[in-house]
Amino acid sequence: MNRQEDEEQKAEQRTMNPKQQATQTNVIKNFFTAEGRLKELPTKYKKKLIVLHHLVSELEPGRTYTEKEINEYIKPHHEDYATIRREFIIHGLMSRDREIYKLNPKEQWDRWDNLS
Fold it and tell me: Which InterPro entries does UniProt cross-reference here (predicted)?
């Protein structure tokens, strides 16, 4: 995790209650290696959203990405970049116009913190 990503995650955690913070921390710890590779994509919806939010946290808001750039971004985290890329779209984290991808505003993201 780089410094900017760490600061963004801490800022996001300040808006969460302690139980939500613990949930997020545990999911990230359980599904990512120390090197930042995703072990597997969770099947439970809430955990999947936490993982996807974590993965997109390093992308720049407002910037456009080609499909190749998104694939190259995902590959160090998980070998099935096509599935992860589709999950970004399905859950509202990114939008796609032809082969151009853009991070959506967080207000459009499927939320995990209000799920039980």
Answer: DUF2087
pTM reported for the whole predicted model: 0.85
Task: List residues bridging with 95 in a β-sheet.
Answer: 102
**Domains in the chain: boundaries:** 3-108
Which 3-state string (H, E, C) describes the chain? CCHHHHHHHHHHHHCCCHHHHHHHHHHHHHHECCCCCECCCCCCHHHHHHHHHHHHCCCCCCCEEEHHHHHHHHCCCCCCHHHHHHHHHHCCCEEEECCEEEECCHHHCCCCCCCC
pLDDT 10s digits, 45-77 = 999 999 999 999 999 999 999 999 999 999 999
CA distances from 101 to 23, 47, 65, 86, 93 (A): 29, 24, 5, 11, 10
